[in-house]
Amino acid sequence: MTVRIDRRSLVLGGSMGLGALLLPGGAHATASLLGARGFTHNVASGEPGPDSILLWTRYVPANGADAALAVELSETPRFERVVAGGRAMARADADFTARTIVGGLEPGRWYYYRFAAPDGAVSPIGRTRTLPAGPCARFGLGVFSCSNLPFGWFNAYAHAAARDDLDLMVHLGDYLYEYPRGTYPKLQDAVKGRIIDPPGELLHLADYRLRYAGYRADPDLQRIHQLFPMIAQIDDHEVANNSWTNGAENHQGDEGDFAARKAAALQAWHEWLPVSDAAWSRYEIGDLATLLRPETRVTGRSRELKMSEALKDRSVLEDPARTMMGLMQEKWVTDTLAASVKRGARWQILAQQTNMGRLFTPPDALSLLAADAPDYLVAYTKGGIAATKAGIAGNLDDWGGFPASRARILAAGEAADADLVVLSGDSHNGWAFELPGTHGRAGVEFGGHSVSSPGYEAYLTATPDTVARMVRGSSPELKWADTSHRGYMTIEITPDRVNGEWVFMETVRERSQAVSGGHRMSVLRGARAFAA
């Protein structure tokens, strides 16, 4: 059923609001946020179940003490009748963020919610939705990853938030970036007004908190959180680039203890997003699907190999002990896939962070580079070409660097007779893979492009069509690619078909909801391959 939203009502009731911050150009508002009082960052919801939802807000009282907030839910935006509620604590030791899980709700239903403070201040009104139970004819996901604020506007969030055919948002990671100003992007490449704080690299709890405060001041990010529940998972940049259990590429010895940095990053993540404390979880979408949210970065991931190590000794790369998520979590994925099939769910959706399909560097990839390409890019490309000749995927930070772990997950789906659909982000480009099992096809993968982080188009001089053709030619599992657009994906789940669409935003350099086309692909139940 399509719900018509009284959108004006969703911005009523705000006290100590963000009027100045919601103007175009207002994303650089961190300085003013330091002294803000009241409900500083709107509202958000997540972790939906058939009868419960997690609600989030941030409230800073004038006296700087903890504050008990009242929570109300209604089936209408004007709250003629309150149907559920509870209390949430905005605690100083949690950066004044507050979250609570409200139960006793009806499945598959839209709800409106708000928070009230002891001083009479009332938050903006949010909208959220519980998961369906039992027979379900259709369910729509919006899928996002890699939103780098100085690289551009979050137009993908704005466009998705205006839709009425989506039920749940899924963020696959790189919700923010840890780099200092002037690093990815360079200062001359940053969009005017999209300034990040603190100016240095994120290392400590105060750093991560301040960066979240700045990102969460973005009006389009606020809007999508206000109107839809979101399931979110971290990737690497919420901690540090190419992170794993005990370290990261972007963590040096003079930056302190990595364990302390990781703990600070995870604390800020749990404070500022509407997420539970569970490192991984599953969500039952009626009889349609089970959505699995694994954690593939900081719980059990082995160290990423250098390409020189993999080329020197292939057995090191293929070591069965190397894993993306740890053996305990692999068992959870295996058991959850089997349980989902047993209960009669028609689809098993693995919403995780990096490409599971293997990408191989084209043998003539050097022809894609500009004549004055930097030495590091030339060396990286040569390493990828050597890897292709050795039968090794070109990116050892994704599942291609953990072949035994990948094989176990795909074999688990095949053994369970799952209709496996993998969702992935991280790469900034759009991909469609058919994933092989031990005896046949194990499933398909929809790889999502980024919200704003640049893709291959920023580094290669060849046309996008040429790049996509060459990568497809060297990568047998790859069935489609786009290497030049920013945006988001939608996944429409029906009993007999899953339809995926890559939505291409026209620009991220200016604030706009204009699109420049897209691409659609589908998989039929039982086929485990894309429809012709």
TrEMBL record:
Domain PhoD-like phosphatase metallophosphatase intervals: 141-502
CDD domains documented for this protein: MPP_PhoD (cd07389)
Domain Phospholipase D N-terminal, first and last residues per copy: 41-130
InterPro entries recorded: Metallo-depent_PP-like, PhoD-like_MPP, PhoD-like_sf, PhoD_N, Phospholipid_Metab_Enz, TAT_signal
Pfam families (UniProt xref): PhoD, PhoD_N
Name of the protein in its database record: Alkaline phosphatase D family protein
Lineage of source species: Bacteria, Pseudomonadati, Pseudomonadota, Alphaproteobacteria, Sphingomonadales
